[in-house]
């Protein structure tokens, strides 16, 4: 279970300060590339219709292999962060696909300055929660 929580949390933290938009989402301050704490996955934040999403643009060989073993044949190009929308100042919520377990969960983000974000996710309600801080690299 702990392994799944870590994988889930890794998927949660790729969004930064995403401003609300009236007609279409703009990645705004979140635009760019973010790395997870272990620097094994890089995600590009971008507009996806009326929300903001994060697509994997790089992953090390081990992360790619773990994703394949769990049923995600191609990690690079996978949309991990889906339908993220601003819920308050510096806070967002959306859905996160965790390729190492092949499931999608609800998650939330909070900006920690311009170049760091903390993502939090829970497998069951407000229980079995995990959080991580990711860093902007581009």
TrEMBL record:
Domain DUF2147: 32-136
Originating species: Sphingomonas parva
Superkingdom per UniProt: Bacteria
Keyword Oxidoreductase: no
Keywords (A to Z) from UniProt: Signal
Signal peptide positions on this chain: 1-24
PANTHER family: BLL6627 PROTEIN (PTHR36919:SF2), BLR1215 PROTEIN (PTHR36919)
Protein name, UniProt field: DUF2147 domain-containing protein
